[in-house]
Structure formats: C-alpha cells, structure tokens
Amino acid sequence: MIIKKRRSYSSKYHYDDCKCCRKKPPTLNCCTRNIEINNNFCYCPPAPPPPTNVLKAETSQYTAISDGIKTVYTNQDKVPAYSTSDILNPNDVSYINLFINGILQPATIYNVQPGSLQLLVDQINIPRNGVPIILQFIKILAN
C-alpha cells in the first residue's frame, strides 16, 4: 500500500496513477481506485506491474526418497511418479533449490553435478528413512 502525506495539493504529494489524487482538492469517491482519505492521508491501492515486465520461467524437479544411509543420489534413485526430470546440469539452469522433508535447505549443505546430488552432511544429519528429497530446477527464459 502506498501512503503519501498530504500537506498541500501540489503535484509532489499526488499518486500519479490515481485520478483522484490528481484532482484538487480530492474527493472521497471520485474514481474506481477506491481511494480513502482519512486525517489528511491518502490511501492508494497498489497497481500490479505491467505484464511485459514478468519474466517467463520453466521449472522441473527431481524427487528421491531417503533410505537413511546414503548421502549421494543419482538419476537411478528418482521416483518417476513425482519427478519431472533427472538431475540437471547446474550450468543449464538459473536456480536450484533443495527441499528435505519439505524444508528449503541452504546451498552449503549440498553439491549438484549432472546426474548426481551429494548431501554434505555428517552421519548424524542424514535424512531419515522415507523422507522426501526434492531438487527443484528453475530456468529463467529470455524474453
């Protein structure tokens, strides 16, 4: 929400996207933006970004189930019903996120190579048997 203090009706205190704020003096119900003026404050609802500025992206995911023992997972460990890809090359994607049991993990605890996910954890922090391991790949496309 954009809030601008009105000290006077000069243009520097007006919200440029709003017809109401450009009127001098503003009225309570003068346009479709639902402007609310209380105690010399003008409450203007935010405008959505123009659709041309939205980036296009592709997402895919690799899913495996922990056995409680291993720290290295390969394409052969994926669960096909929940995976949309193998483990991709990190150089071919924009972002990689690792979720263990639904919790986003810091990039310092894993290493991704094409076809391989290595968890950089000690024996005590290996995910328990049956815990889902999801590697999400996000590729930002050129417009």
Report what the structure shows.
The protein has 143 residues and is an all-beta fold. The chain folds into two domains: 2-44, no CATH class; 53-140, no CATH class. Helix content is 3%, strand content 34%. It is built from one helix and ten strands. The chain has a four-stranded antiparallel beta sheet, with no helix packed on it. Strands 1-3-2 form a three-stranded antiparallel beta sheet, with no helix packed on it. It has a three-stranded antiparallel beta sheet with strand order 5-9-8, with no helix packed on it. The longest helix has 4 residues, at 19-22. The protein is elongated. The chain starts with a strand and ends with a strand. Residues 5-17 have low confidence and may be disordered.
Helix and strand topology:
Blueprint: E1 2-5, H1 19-22, E2 36-38, E3 41-44, E4 57-65, E5 72-74, E6 95-100, E7 103-105, E8 110-113, E9 116-119, E10 132-140
Helical segment count: 1
Shape: elongated
Largest beta sheet: what is the strand line-up? 4-10-6-7
**How far do the termini sit from each other?**
29 Å
Runs with pLDDT <50, length 5+? 5-17
Biggest sheet record = 4 strands, antiparallel
Q: Number of domains in the coordinates? A: 2
Give the percentage of residues in beta strands. 25-35%
- Structural class, from secondary structure content? mainly beta
Strand element count = 10
Q: Work out the radius of gyration.
A: 25 Å
Mean of the pLDDT scores?
80
Give helix and strand order, one letter per element, not per position.
EHEEEEEEEEE
Q: What portion of residues is helical?
A: under 10%
